[in-house]
Amino acid sequence: REALQRDPQQRIWLEVEWEALENAGIPPSQTVGEKVGVYVGASNVDYQNSVVADQSAIESHFVTGIALSIASNRISYVFDWKGPSMTIDTACSSSRGALSRALDDLDHDKVPLAVVAGVNMLLSPGPYIGFSCARMLSPTGLCRPFSADADGYVRSEGAVALVLRKGRAGDPGGRAERVRAEILGAGVNSDGRTVGVSLPSVAGQAALLRAFYDRLEVEPAKLAFVEGHGTGNQLGDP
């Protein structure tokens, strides 16, 4: 009965967290009761909207089943982790915001281990209608980031989880863990007031990148690979 009232995204979060721990070579049983921080990026409330549409089906588990705050708290509950547990909603950059907060807590030694997760499931036609009315979605069903022919983005589903520990790549500190990559840092800012509440600023994004590269002493020209957030429209890809 509880599962029927629970956002499917909560189940996916638990699954990818378990997989991430296994992939990192960390038995979940060895983390029970530890001060592990949980940082979840979430903004999708499709399931909540679909359940609310039939109010006669709402039962006692509905509140914890659809609350975004429980997305992170349920992970802490299931794994019995005692560290910070929070859900961060910054729309399409929610997972990115969660990662930034996790890195901050690791950097300040607030937690010895952090897990970051994000998931997006498309369960309701409502957002499609809203985004289409706002001319955000591509009418052709093709996303063309940074192209003169860009006419919108295409919604998609996905799930990811990371296990983070402070240290240096290749140095697990004597632990039998698999280190996949090293994160040098993260940067976050806001564009403030632009021509629209959901519209970005070229100057704001450029300022963030300059400050980020300067702080980490990284020369952009030496980067071998860049992955960008391309919304596939003229305003979103300045």
UniProtKB/TrEMBL annotation:
Single Gene Ontology BP annotation: fatty acid biosynthetic process
Keyword check for Phosphoprotein: yes
TM stretches of this protein: none
Keywords: Phosphopantetheine, Phosphoprotein, Transferase
Signal peptide: none
InterPro entries (alphabetical): Ketoacyl_synth_AS, Ketoacyl_synth_C, Ketoacyl_synth_N, PKS_Beta-ketoAc_synthase_dom, PKS_NRPS_Biosynth_Enz, Thiolase-like
Name of this protein: Fatty acid synthase
